[in-house]
């Protein structure tokens, strides 16, 4: 196949579309988990106002919240790994094309990195995977709050 082979261009289009679909599915999953976690934290926090509620219910809410946080984190890691593989394929296909937009974009991001941690490129996935941990801590703190009221 040559650089101008329509089959290569068609495969490239499909690979890019599939990578975009993975990103879209990840966004939908994030919205789902964020909604569930926010609701669960709200219920847990409101239960602290009712001193008559038994602590086992708070424990159940905390366990469910932490389990959902772990599930969310593992799912994000899976999406990251899947997208990494897809972009490896895209970059390989780009070697057969006259231009390499994704490869060039990544090189540009890497070149702008400095030794300063606050100026380096932080991919969305890094901050995205931090959020489930925040929710896990909130669930544990809310459970602990049951014993301080």
Calculate the terminal CA-CA distance, rounded to whole Å: 71 Å
Largest sheet: none
Strand content bin: under 5%
Q: What integer is the average pLDDT?
A: 86
Q: Radius of gyration, Cα only, in angstroms?
A: 22 Å
Structural class: mainly alpha
Q: Are there runs of 5+ residues with pLDDT below 50, and where? A: none
The beta-strand count equals 0
* Helix fraction by DSSP (H/I, runs of at least 4): over 70%
Morphology call = elongated
Order of helices and strands: HHHH
Please identify the oligomeric state: single chain
Per DSSP, the total helix count is 4
Number of domains: 1
Pfam families: 8xMP (PF24838)
Keywords: Membrane, Transmembrane, Transmembrane helix
Transmembrane segments: 27-49, 55-74
Gist of the model:
With 149 residues, this protein is mainly α. It has one domain.
3D architecture notes:
There is one protein chain. By secondary structure, the protein is mainly alpha-helical. The chain has one domain (6-101, 117-145). Helices cover 77% and strands 0% of the residues. It has 4 helices and no strands. The chain has helices spanning 6-47, 55-94, 101-111, 124-145. α1 runs antiparallel to α2, α1 (6-47) packs parallel to α4 and α2 (55-94) runs antiparallel to α4. It is elongated and about 75 Å long. The chain starts with 5 loop residues before the first helix and ends with a helix. The chain crosses the membrane at residues 27-49, 55-74. Keywords: Membrane, Transmembrane, Transmembrane helix. Pfam families: 8xMP.
């Amino acid at each position: 196949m040559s650089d101008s082979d329509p089959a290569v261009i068609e495969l490239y289009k499909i690979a890019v579309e599939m990578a975009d679909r993975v990103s879209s599915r990840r966004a939908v999953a994030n919205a789902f988990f964020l909604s569930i976690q926010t609701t669960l934290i709200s219920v847990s926090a409101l239960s602290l106002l009712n001193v008559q509620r038994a602590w086992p219910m708070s424990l159940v809410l905390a366990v469910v919240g932490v389990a959902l946080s772990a599930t969310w984190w593992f799912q994000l890691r899976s999406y990251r790994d899947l997208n990494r593989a897809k972009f490896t394929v895209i970059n390989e296909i780009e070697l057969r094309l006259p231009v390499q937009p994704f490869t060039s974009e990544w090189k540009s991001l890497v070149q702008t990195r400095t030794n300063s941690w606050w100026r380096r490129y932080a991919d969305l996935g890094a901050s995205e995977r931090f959020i489930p941990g925040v929710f896990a801590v909130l669930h544990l703190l809310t459970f602990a709050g049951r014993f301080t009221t």
